[in-house]
Amino acid sequence: MNPWIAKAVILAAMIVMVAIRALHGQRSRTVKVVKSRKGPLEVALLILAWLGFFVPLFWIASPLLSFADYPLRITPLLGGFACLVVGLWLFQRSHAHLGTNWSVTLQVREHHRLVTDGVYRHVRHPMYMALFLYSLGQLLVLPNWVAGPSYLVTFGILFALRIRAEEKMMLEEFGADYVAYMARTKRLVPRVLLSNPDITRPPWTSPRSRFGLRQRSCPTSRSAFATRAGLISHRALRGSRVLTSST
Fold first, then answer.
1. What stretches of 142-218 show up as alpha helix (H) in DSSP?
2. Which of 104, 90, 129 is nearest to 47 (CA)?
3. Which of 26, 88, 109, 216 could hold 31 in an S-S bridge, CB 3.0 to 4.6 Å?
4. What is the pLDDT of residue 214?
């Protein structure tokens, strides 16, 4: 098959992706940011992910990656096209439900609210799921060993290094509401990927208080200990009296 079919498909998908993000990103920027965790690591991860996203453009425009080309097949092309379509649909729905609560980085905006309806009803990160589907579609559509997996690799690194910090930020912001939300949802795929028990525990609770145990000792235990100590001392006193009378 002509590789330009794959080039046309991925180019159209990239345009749709950028258009969705630009539209919703413009709306979000009108709302003030009140908290931000955009550190050097976060900046590096975003740059890495964007580089992986735009590698297909370099493959389309330049012959430098032609050494990694392989023949385009109909089956992976159709499978990849389906992943791209579903991924872009889920990407748009995720943005629509988040509204102005969305940020490209780890930020909390003014009047930020916890979204738990729509595509967020069963999974906490449908937008990440959408981007994984998109990156899988790119891998299947592009007949090139470099351009094909580029976004899957770079976005996978971003997800792995960001997800814990993101959920920790949400726990600190929404507290018990986010704990309850985590208890009834999965991160990416319903009924498949379980929540991390280390994250589901709120940062303000200890392992003992998590199970209803208090840090101070139990009054019952104290009284029992005092009773035993009194009994032992009474027996020792009686023994000393017997010893004294016998001598």
1. 150-174, 176-184, 197-200, 207-210
2. 104
3. 109
4. 41
User: Is residue 224 situated within a structural domain?
Assistant: no
The tokens of 135 are what?
């990156």
The crossing angle, in degrees rounded to 10, of helices 176-184 and 150-174 is 130
Burial class for 26, CB neighbours closer than 10 Å (0-12, 13-18, 19+): exposed
**Residue 243 structure tokens:** 């010893």
Asked, for residue 236, whether it belongs to a domain, the answer is no
User: How many Å from the N-terminal Cα to the C-terminal Cα in the chain?
Assistant: 113
| Domain boundaries, position 9 | 3-210
> How far is residue 131's CA from residue 121's CA, in Å, rounded to a whole number?
18
The CATH number of residue 128's host domain is: 1.20.120.1630
Which pLDDT does position 192 carry in this prediction? 67
Euclidean distance between CA atoms 147 and 90, whole angstroms? 23
Determine how many CB atoms are found less than 10 A away from the CB of residue 170.
21
Residue 142 structure tokens: 């592009």
What domain count does the chain have?
1
Tell me the two tokens of residue 55.
């590698």
Binned average pLDDT, 10 residues per bin, the chain of 247 residues: 94 96 85 88 94 95 94 96 98 93 89 92 94 97 97 97 94 94 91 52 43 41 45 46 38
Query: pTM above the 0.70 mark?
Result: yes
Q: Confirm if 169 and 177 have CB atoms less than 8 A apart.
A: no
3-state secondary structure of 146: coil
